[in-house]
Amino acid sequence: MVVSILLDTNIIIYREDNNVIEDKIQRLSKILNKPKFNTFVHENSFKDIDNDKNISRREIVTSKMKSYQILKTHYDFQKDTDFVRIVGYDGTSNEYVDNSLLYSLLKGETTFLITNDNGIHKKAKKLDKTHENISERVFNISEALNYFEEKIPKFPYNIKHDTMNHLDINDPIFDKLKRDYVDFEGWFKRKQNAKRNCLSYYNPNNLLGAVLIYKPEEEEQIVLKETILPYKNRIKIATMIVTYEGYKIGEFFLKWIIDYAQSNKIDELYLTHFIEPDDSLVFLITEYGFILEGYNNLGEAVYTKSINREECEKKICDEIGEKSPIELAKKYYPYFYDGPEVNKIIVPITDEYHEKLFLSKSQQSSLSNDITVSRNTIKKAYLSNTPTNINVGDILLFYQTHTNQGISEIGVVESSHKDLSLEDIIKTVGKRSVFSQEELKEFEDKNSILLFIHSREFYKIPSKKLIKMGLIKRAPMTAHNVNNEKYSEFKKLIQ
């Protein structure tokens, strides 16, 4: 099968003298020259280049672009009022081109879009609310390399659980914070001396690509301009920065800190943040239930997220008539609706695929140099050769079938697909895939594809206990439903 790739002009042109980026682009170009890829530039991309008043540069860029196939679109995004309302359009040439690229992806004129334009990535994220999984098909250079390069492991990002005294304040990742906060350097040095905990990811050029600094706060208030939030046991996300050099690292950080808070019986997470237009951090945290409470005296927005089980489960029960089960699963993540209206399904999964899909507790607690980020993200994709009838909002209980048999993972179905062609599998799974292109061929035509929200891992309930309580009769070979009474018994074991 040939996969169609649409390239933004910033992937073709080395706009900056950056050897790291240039090396990545060269590697990516070599990969995309293989027969299994059909690579295009969009016809409307030339409109942006035509506006360049530097004639010599314009001719060079145009020449480079013409070495690719030209995607001649059949669609005009300006006629789609819903699309324009969602992504925005200011009438400029640059945004006209950005929207044209994204609309061609939306209309199926290409399988993937590769761009280093943060604005396009943010627009794609907005489209996810009405068009499933669009952002999973928009790659930056690093993501494209990790997706299309044939290597194992697929996503080898090194996440370290560290202390701040090992961080370098002169790293470029902190430049914006130095501009935004007058005493940032003083604060940073004080927290270095205190050896405050953090997670960090370093790029191949040994610069920070992402960092999460957090602080437990026992029984403290949060003072806002208009009100004071009451005393609670909280964790403050003091700093969370993720550059586009990473792959789902922001999602990794968010899941990790929520798991950490839950394990330590914390009631609430919060962070303060100066909001920017199309803010990617705000997109991420609000998707999983962070609420804007107001602004502090510095003018920062203050976002909170409840982790208190009793409080979240009560709100889920109150809102089930207003919101769908999957909406509630995101809003109150990691908690979810599991009443009688949704099915509870045991899904058998082999050791190999279990290892690909999930990150064990031991690996989470000792974040080391071989951590695979894709295994600890919130959004995941499960692929099977056996078509099944599973609905949005259903609860998945993943049963490991070989060594150490039992159930230790639970998720909520975001969407369900079956009997897809290879091309549709690739489009549907997108960046959630933990499989190579070759491995995906194993699932062609006869399949079940489940996109799901990974709620959490718990200590494994072994096969013998599951049989004794009547949840299963024997080790399951195919997915099957569990009645609500048996599920209620099971639920008591994992709370």
3D structure, described in words:
The protein is an alpha/beta fold and 495 residues long. It folds into three domains: 3-148, 3-Layer(aba) Sandwich (Rossmann fold), CATH 3.40.50.1010; 159-306, Aminopeptidase, CATH 3.40.630.30; 344-494, Archaeosine Trna-guanine Transglycosylase, Chain: A, domain 4 (Roll), CATH 2.30.130. 35% of the residues lie in helices and 26% in strands. The chain has 20 helices and 18 strands. It has helices at residues 9-12, 19-32, 45-50, 55-66, 81-87, 93-106, 118-127, 141-148, 175-180, 184-193, 249-263, 280-287, 309-319, 325-331, 351-357, 361-365, 422-429, 437-440, 463-468, 484-494; strands at residues 3-7, 37-42, 69-71, 112-114, 138-139, 159-163, 197-202, 208-223, 228-242, 268-273, 291-295, 301-306, 344-349, 379-384, 395-400, 406-418, 448-462, 480-482. The strands form three sheets. A seven-stranded mixed sheet has the order 6-7-8-9-10-12-11. Strands 14-17-16-15-13-18 form a six-stranded mixed sheet. Helix 2 (19-32) crosses helix 8 (141-148). The radius of gyration is 24 Å and the shape is globular. The protein starts with a strand and ends with a helix. Mean pLDDT is 85; it is low at 15-19, 151-156 and 361-374.
Described by the principal axes of the CA atoms, the overall outline is globular
Major β-sheet strand ordering: 6-7-8-9-10-12-11
Instruction: Give the name of the CATH architecture of the largest domain.
Output: Roll
Cα distance spanning the termini: 46 Å
State the major sheet. 7 strands, mixed
The parts where pLDDT drops under 50 for at least 5 residues are 15-19, 151-156, 361-374
- CATH topology grouping of the largest domain: Archaeosine Trna-guanine Transglycosylase, Chain: A, domain 4
Report the CATH superfamily of the largest domain. Hypothetical protein
| Helix/sheet category | alpha/beta
Averaged pLDDT, please? 85
Count of DSSP H/I helices: 20
- Binned strand content: 25-35%
Radius of gyration: 24 Å
Task: Tell me the domain tally.
Answer: 3
CATH class of the largest domain: Mainly Beta
Helix-residue proportion:
25-40%
Instruction: Compute the number of strand runs.
Output: 18
- Multimerization state: single chain
